[in-house]
Amino acid sequence: MPRGRYSLHDPHDHTPLGEEHFQCAPGPSGWRYVSQVTTSSGDHGGSVDLALDDLGRPIRLELHAGGWQVRGAALDGVTWVRTDPTGTHATEGNVRAHAFTGTSPAFLVATARLLRLTPSSAATRVRLVAFTDPALAPRTVDQSWALLKRETHATDNGPLTVDEYQVTALDTGEQHLVHLASDVVLSAPGIELEDLQSPPSVFKDPDD
Questions:
Q1: Predicted structure pTM score
Q2: Cis before residue 134, ω within 30 degrees of 0?
Q3: Is the pLDDT of residue 206 over 80?
Q4: What's the CA gap between 205 and 207, in Å, rounded?
Q5: Mean pLDDT confidence for 169-194
Q6: Which residues, including other chains, have CB under 8 Å from residue 176's CB and lie 6 or more apart?
Q7: Which CA distances in Å does 12 have to 72, 73, 119, 122, 152?
């Protein structure tokens, strides 16, 4: 069960935004990630609870940030309920999208699990609903993902396979690289892995 800490910063000017303390693991239904977010001043900033099925689809999402709450799941595309900080108003949403995304590293792992690309795969387009801190307002985004290369490195805990993805925002053409080792993000814009207390998970694909 990987457990550790990411530092979060603005991907453009590198302003520190805080830290995300996480743990994640594959389970009988797929994969689950839970985390607590702290601000740059050390205050509580929110939380993430994301569960995927064996195919990488979000079967449960719960986000908290800035007093806002979002609960969502894959249903007729993706469906969610967003509740305001007072708890008196809730708005529902539904989009014909594949999954969710946001500022948490969990969403990069989730998208990679959903697409299951290989280095020989063509770039794949995916539509996501993004919830960004602190208001968790929904926004539909289209991205293209390509797995550029897969390399295996020797470590004290055995071989570690690292995937390098190129992610393209289709509305702006902006591209960036994401490096994943199974269900751990090694690096991505605005994300740095600062501490990892156990190796990344080993997944058994549903086809095995």
A1: 0.95
A2: yes
A3: no
A4: 5
A5: 97
A6: 11, 166, 167, 188, 189
A7: 29, 31, 28, 28, 30
In which residue are the tokens 């795969």 written? 121
101: number of Cβ within 10 Å: 21
> pLDDT for 59-77, tens place per residue?
999 999 999 999 999 999 9
The strand pairing partners of 23, in sequence order, are 3, 34
What six digits make up the tokens of 203?
Answer: 């997944």
CA atoms within 13 A on the CB side of 55: 5
- Banded model confidence at residue 207, pLDDT cuts 50, 70, 90: low
**Token pair 């199974």 in the structure block, residue:** 182
- For 115-172, the DSSP string reads H---TTSPPEEEEEEEEETTTTEEEEEEEEEEEEEEEEEEETTEEEEEEEEEEEETTT
- What token pair was written down for 172? 């702006």
Q: Is the dihedral of CA 199, 28, 70, 97 positive or negative?
A: positive
CA distances from 197 to 1, 3, 11, 31, 68 (A): 9, 6, 25, 18, 30
